Every structure is written in C-alpha cells, then in structure tokens.
Amino acid sequence: MDNKENETNSIIYSQETIEFVTVANEYCKMLESLNDYSLAKFVENIYKLSSLLHLKAINLSKPQITQKSPSETFITEADWHFIDNAISQKLGQFEVYTEIREPANPDTPINISMSECLTDTYQDLKDFTQIYHIASEDVILNAMNDCKTNFEQIWGPRILSVLKEFHNLLYGNEELKEEETDINTSVSKGKNWVNNLFTDE
C-alpha cells in the first residue's frame, strides 16, 4: 500500500468521517420519516441532531482535490419539494422565516424558512452519504470536498439558524401542538449510537 492510498484511507475511514456520515444518515432518516414523530419530538430530535451535525461537520476533513469534477446528485427537484413540504406541514404555525448571511455574500442576507434550511441541508447530506456508500475512493474524496465546502458556505449557516429558532421553540412558553396533516413516509430509524439519543420513552 503506497503513501497516497494510506492517506486516502486515513481520510475516508477516519473516526471523524465515520461519525459525520453516521449523524448525516440519521438526520436524513428523520426527515424521511416525519410521521414517526410528534411535533415536539421532531423539534427536539432535530435540535439534537443539528447540534451534532454542526460539530461533526467542523471536524470533517476537506481533501485537497487536484482534478475537481462535479459530484453526482441523487435528490431531484421533486424530492426536495416533497421533503420541504412535509417539514412545513409538520411545523405548521411554528414555521418561521429567518435571515441568514452566507460567508461568500455577507452583505446580501437571505430570507429563508426553517423547512428550506432543513431541506437544503438534507439534499447535500443525502447526496454525500449515497456517494460514500457506493462510490470509488476518488469519487468519495471529491464529494467530501464538496460537502465540506457547502457546509462552510451554504448549509452551515442554515443549521445555525435552525438551532436558534428551535431552541426558542423548545424552551419557550408555547406548547408545541401540531395540526392534522397527511405526511406518509416510511423509512425506519437505524439502531446505532446516535439513534439512542432520539428514542421515544
């Protein structure tokens, strides 16, 4: 095994990468199975997951890519709108818009909803985790570079906005009761060290 292969394996299969992928998988599963949770439990679990996700993304390595190519995408526009609509329905009256500033354009704030923040993050994480599980090492490294860049510039600020708004929902005085909806998704929760944080008791 040469030095380049050693370096590649140390990045792709490092504890930091595996933990990031684990949290990202659980985040995606939760948004794909909203019917499994009450509104209060959804807000609580996403608050926990978003906190973990932000930390694990900070620790994720950003591979240096000499020949950059666009990463493969799996989430379609229809998928994006389905998840966004499901989250918005789940939040109901608690859906709020917030102003975020992306590092690349700090003087041009964006007005964006919580469901959009969560769905934009979902799209990037779902694409990356799909690649991580099926692609070659070179493709994975390319996708890691994209994911880390997108965290720095796009979904990192969105996750921080979610944390701020969901903190207020969790610890405010208003009771979290949801409206009747017809969200029907079916991905079940995985069983691992992250999932232990989100069990209903």
Brief description of this entry?
The protein has 201 residues and is mainly alpha-helical. It has six helices and two strands, in the order ααααββαα.
Provide key terms for this protein.
globular, single chain, Four Helix Bundle (Hemerythrin (Met), subunit A), 59% helix, two-stranded antiparallel ribbon, mainly alpha, 201 residues
The count of domains is 1
* CATH superfamily annotation: Protein of unknown function DUF5063
Individual helix count: 6
Question: Spans of 5+ residues with little confidence (pLDDT < 50)?
Answer: 183-191
* CATH structural class: Mainly Alpha
Strand order of the largest sheet: 1-2
Task: Report what the structure shows.
This protein is mainly alpha-helical and 201 residues long. It has one domain (3-182): Protein of unknown function DUF5063 (Four Helix Bundle (Hemerythrin (Met), subunit A), Up-down Bundle), CATH 1.20.120. 59% of the residues lie in helices and 4% in strands. Residues 183-191 have low confidence and may be disordered.
Chain-wise SSE layout:
Blueprint: H1 3-12, H2 15-31, H3 39-59, H4 77-91, E1 97-100, E2 110-113, H5 114-134, H6 137-171
Helix pairs in contact: 1-6, 2-3, 2-5, 3-6, 4-5, 5-6
